[in-house]
Amino acid sequence: MTWLITGGAGFIGSHVVKAMAEGGERIVVLDDLSTGRPERLPEGVPLEVGTVLDREVVDRVLREHAVTGIVHIAGKKQVAESVAEPLHYYHENVEGLRTLLEGAVGAGVTRFLFSSSAAVYGMPDVDLVTEATPCAPINPYGETKLAGEWLVTATGRTHGMATASLRYFNVAGAATPELGDDGVFNLVPMVFERLTAGERPLVFGDDYPTPDGTCIRDYIHVEDIASAHVAAARRLAADPGASLVLNIGRGEGVSVTEMVGIIQDVTGRTDVEPLVTDRRPGDPARVVASADRIAEELGWSARYGVREMVESAWAGWQLRHP
Ligand SMILES: NC(=O)c1ccc[n+]([C@@H]2O[C@H](COP(=O)([O-])OP(=O)(O)OC[C@H]3O[C@@H](n4cnc5c(N)ncnc54)[C@H](O)[C@@H]3O)[C@@H](O)[C@H]2O)c1
Asked: How high is the mean pLDDT of the chain?
């Protein structure tokens, strides 16, 4: 098979490219470089610079590289930005996906993997979030991911395409310092930023109904995300009728206080007292994946723990902020 990986020059995409290339898959990347960096790609992996919204580009890339499967990772991912610019998010994440799927159907592509998110669940009121937990996104970003899943499943069903939507929980870490996350939108880089600026790390609310009062999340190493894609791609290749929706998480909750403590330990800044501020609107108390279905379907489970995520992310942060 030849796989097109959209968004392959981004944080998660570049890890998926690396893992799939090392797994012996033939790969081509389509990326508009809006947030991606070409130097993230390993040597020998062709990069086509363009947007998934451009049907001519999509058709040409699928044809010229004889693509048989697509891993669609490209997308916009900032919750606050999606609230400010919903039309832009629906255009990029839903219309971009629709255009890509239309091209895929036209080109006879029969395998399609989609980057979804735990944001589809919104504020789940359960201990462990299974794929059967009702989806009720609370921001346009999560809505575009849920609409994307529907689009992928419906297209697969009608046009004979094996599909998988992978719901990532809180992604952190890096395979190598060069592949680290450039953005400062998640807890780990946000704490790095505060600590390196000589400021106290912020904790948004300590009065949640959790053991230490701070929010609990399921952090997952980006290398584990990548290995789950390798497993899912193999499954789709072997099973033309597959129609999967899978959580990618560790099934283990870590509180903000615990995470900040690990970050302070790894960065050697245990002397700084975190600063508790108001809750942020729309932060659920606890979002932890059940990772049972992906284990059953793909035989996959996470390998890395939180400390490895923080250590590898810190190496990347130091590289970019010398
Ligand atoms: N980072 C997370 O914690 C997280 C969690 C859940 C889901 N996701 C999803 O994973 C995907 C990748 O996230 P990331 O953290 O690697 O973000 P990122 O911004 O690093 O990567 C996105 C990549 O897509 C490219 N891109 C954006 N719009 C494009 C377009 N229209 N056409 C072609 N390329 C385009 C960007 O240049 C970039 O290389 C996104 O779809 C995101 O919603 C991320």
From this structure: 97
Residue 273 C-alpha to ligand 1 middle, in angstroms? 33
Considering the domain architecture, whether residues 230 and 210 belong to the same structural domain is answered as no
Instruction: Write the pLDDT tens digit of every residue in 106-117.
Output: 999 999 999 999
The pair of three-digit structure tokens given for residue 56, joined into one six-digit string? 């001519």
Query: Is the C-beta atom of 32 inside 6 A of ligand 1?
Result: yes
Are 68 and 20 in a shared domain? yes
Ligand 1 atom nearest to 12, measured from its CA: 16
Residue 4: CB within 6 Å of ligand 1?
no
What per-residue confidence (pLDDT) applies to 61? 98
Cβ–Cβ < 8 Å for 128, 85: no
Same domain, 81 and 108: yes
Rounded to the nearest angstrom, the distance between the alpha carbon of 63 and the centre of ligand 1 is 24
Please indicate, yes or no, whether residues 256 and 282 belong to a single structural domain of this protein: yes
Ligand 1 within 6 A of 264 CB? no
Per-residue pLDDT averaged across 165-179, rounded?
98
Evaluate if pTM is beyond 0.90: yes
* Residues 194 and 233 reside in one and the same domain: no
Model confidence at 302, in pLDDT bands (50, 70, 90)? very high
Instruction: Give me the mean pLDDT over the 221-232 stretch.
Output: 98
The CATH number that applies at residue 273 is 3.90.25.10
Q: Which domain holds residue 199?
A: 173-217+251-289+296-320
Any atom of ligand 1 within 6 Å of the Cβ of 171 = yes
Q: Is the CB of 9 under 6 A from ligand 1?
A: yes
Instruction: Let me know if 121 is a catalytic residue.
Output: no
Number of domains the chain is built from: 2
Contacts 24+ apart (CB under 8 A), 258-263: 258/212, 259/187, 259/188, 259/191, 259/217, 259/219, 259/306, 259/310, 260/187, 260/191, 260/201, 260/203, 262/306, 262/307, 262/310, 263/188, 263/191, 263/192, 263/195, 263/201, 263/310, 263/314
Residue nearest to atom 31 of ligand 1 (CA): 51
Whether 224 and 305 share a structural domain: no
Which residue has its alpha carbon closest to ligand 1 atom 9?
A: 115
